[in-house]
Each structure stands twice: as structure tokens, then as C-alpha cells.
Specification:
It is a single chain. This protein has ten helices and 15 strands. By secondary structure, it is of the alpha+beta class. The protein has two domains: 188 residues, PurM-like C-terminal domain (Phosphoribosyl-aminoimidazole Synthetase, Chain A, domain 2, Alpha-Beta Complex), CATH 3.90.650.10; 103 residues, PurM-like, N-terminal domain (60s Ribosomal Protein L30, Chain: A, 2-Layer Sandwich), CATH 3.30.1330. The strands form three sheets. It has a seven-stranded mixed sheet, sandwiched between helices. It has a five-stranded mixed sheet with strand order 1-2-5-3-4. A three-stranded mixed sheet has the order 7-8-11, with no helix packed on it. Strand 1 and strand 2 form a beta hairpin. Helix 4 packs parallel to helix 5. The longest helix is centred in the N-terminal third of the chain and has 18 residues.
């Protein structure tokens, strides 16, 4: 990758639509007066509420209207899948989901509902209720999830000196024209449930404390979110990222994979963590280092380019 224009590449990632969507979070939290002094932590994959000897986990996802209109069955599938993935990213196991389905007539609503039903069966989670409106001007979907964790993985516990591990299921394909890499809908029965179980077991075995589900912001955008939450910097080596054959790196780093996680791992635990994913035939690699720089940088062949400098601007958070 020595011929890569790292500065141009960093600018491309910084200006991506997925990263812009994460910046919108600050607008909402500012309006709600949620800042760094609040008891609400902005940036985790789920809300975590202490409950007995563990935590109740809550999360919700809404979906881009164009995506729902173009592929309503897959939107329904994703409604369940991304929520269950968020629960796993926090070290938990999903228990139940509810949904809000709006559409202009029954066809799109039925397709979304079938997608949710199929994903729920594949992932072993129950659909326990929801809300519907079949008189909307356009199809819309939102899905919420309840889960439970014995021990948390968070976005706030990455530490300088940790190794950044990327674990991504490459056994899939894109569902064009959107940046979704689907390694889920064609998976053998039970595989995804067993794959997702890796995350809570890592938490419970004390092998990892900080993890994020790779989101619509892509791998680098997700690393930016992790760095901001933990108050750290991250150096990322793009050439080390697991990638499917024949997929351009620029596209891959802005992709939303159906199974993809970033983990901040103490160096002594890296072999064990990577071995857990290898046992499930999931591609995992050390792709960077957590630093105290407060920047997310790309590093390659002696080059360095900053994607985001938190000294210049926040991403999701704001302060009074």
C-alpha cells in the first residue's frame, strides 16, 4: 500500500456520509442538555442499567427511508440483526425486540415483518410487540431491543497501549446500492447465534473491556467513536484490515458489515481473543494501537495522516 495517498484517503473517510450522521448525534444531545457531566453516556451501543448482579441493556435503531423502500424484507432482517449485534457489543445477550412499522399499504409492511420474523428465528430472539401504521406516505421502520449482560463491554474503556482488533465475517456479499455487507441471510442455521456468543464470553472471561459494533460509519468512523468515548487516540494500519477479495479498500472501510466488531485488547490477551474468532472462521486481525494522542490516524509505509483530531472538534459529544 505504499502507493496509497494517505492524506486523500483520510479526507475521504472523514467526509463520508456515515461519519456525518454520527455528528448529528451532538445536535440531539445538545437539545436534550446531555453533556460530558451527565449520567447518560453518549456513544455506547446500548444504554446499560444496573440490575441485580448484571445489567439490563436497551437499544433502538431507525432506518434510512430509501433503504427501507428499496429492500423492505432486508430492512426488517436488519432491524433485528443490528439490535442483537449492539447487545453483543456490550457483552450481552438479546432477550426480546419490539418494532414500529409504517407503510403505504400492506405490501411493504408484510415484507418488513417477514424479514423481522426470519431474523428473529435465525438469531434466537423473540418479537414481543410493536406499533404499525399502514396509512403512511412512505415505508419506515424502527426496532428496539432488550438484553442482559453479566459483565459489560463498553465504548469508554479503551486504554493507551491496547491493541485494536478488527473481527469481521467476510463470508458474504454486498446488497447494492447500499454499503451493507450481508454475511447473515445465507448463513447456516445456528451459526450467527454461536458467532455472537463470542462477545459476552470475552466479557465474562475478562479478556476485553472495550468493544464497538462496526456501524454505518464504517470501520474508521467506528474507531473514531470509540476513541472519543474513551478519551484516547488510535493509530490504524489500513493494510492490516481483514477484507474480502476484490473489494476496494475505500469501499470496505465505509462498509456496514453484518458481523463486524472493533475490540480494544490488552496485548497479553490478543492471541486468546483472536483465537476465539478463528475457531468460528471469522477473520480477525490486529489493525492498530490505542494511543494517548486524541487523534485517529492512518499509518502506512512510513506515512501518517489524521482522519480526526479531537483537539479541533468533537464528533458525537459536546460540552457546555
Amino acid at each position: 500500500m505504499s502507493d496509497l495517498d494517505l492524506a486523500a484517503f483520510a479526507a475521504l473517510l472523514r467526509e463520508g456520509r456515515g461519519v456525518a450522521a454520527k455528528r448529528d448525534i451532538a445536535t440531539v444531545t445538545r437539545s436534550m442538555q446531555i453533556d460530558g457531566a451527565s449520567t447518560v453516556q453518549v456513544g455506547d451501543d446500548c444504554a446499560a442499567i444496573p440490575d441485580g448482579d448484571g445489567f439490563l441493556l436497551f437499544a433502538i435503531e431507525g432506518f434510512i427511508e430509501a433503504f427501507v423502500a428499496a429492500d423492505p424484507w432486508f430492512a426488517g432482517w436488519c432491524g433485528v440483526m443490528v439490535n442483537v449485534s449492539d447487545i453483543a457489543a456490550m457483552g450481552g445477550r438479546a432477550m426480546a425486540v419490539v418494532d414500529a412499522i409504517w407503510s403505504a399499504g400492506p405490501a411493504d409492511a408484510e415484507a418488513m415483518a417477514r424479514g423481522m420474523r426470519d431474523a428473529a428465528a435465525a438469531l434466537g430472539v423473540r418479537i414481543v410487540g410493536g406499533h404499525s401504521n399502514l396509512s403512511s406516505s412512505k415505508p419506515q421502520l424502527s426496532v428496539a431491543v432488550l438484553g442482559r449482560a453479566k459483565r459489560l463491554l463498553t465504548s469508554f474503556d479503551a486504554r493507551p497501549g491496547d491493541v485494536l482488533v478488527a473481527a469481521i465475517d467476510l463470508r458474504g456479499r454486498y446488497r447494492d446500492p447500499f454499503p451493507n455487507f450481508d454475511a447473515a441471510t445465507g448463513a447456516p442455521e445456528g451459526r450467527m447465534r454461536r458467532d455472537l456468543e463470542i462477545l459476552p464470553l470475552l466479557a465474562e472471561d475478562g479478556l476485553c473491556a472495550a468493544t464497538k459494533d462496526i456501524s454505518q460509519a464504517g470501520l474508521v468512523g467506528t474507531a473514531m467513536m470509540l476513541a472519543e468515548c474513551s478519551g484516547v487516540g488510535i493509530d490504524i494500519a489500513p493494510s492490516a484490515v481483514p477484507i474480502p477479495a476484490d473489494v476496494p479498500l475505500a469501499r470496505w472501510l465505509q462498509t456496514f458489515p453484518s458481523f463486524g466488531y472493533l475490540l480494544s485488547v490488552a496485548p497479553s490477551f490478543v492471541p486468546d481473543v483472536m483465537g476465539r474468532f478463528a475457531e468460528r472462521d471469522i477473520s480477525a486481525a490486529s489493525i492498530g494501537i490505542v494511543t494517548d494522542s486524541r487523534r485517529v490516524d492512518l499509518v502506512d509505509a512510513g506515512q501518517r495522516a489524521t482522519v480526526w483530531d479531537f483537539a479541533d472538534a468533537p464528533l458525537m459529544q459536546w460540552t457546555v
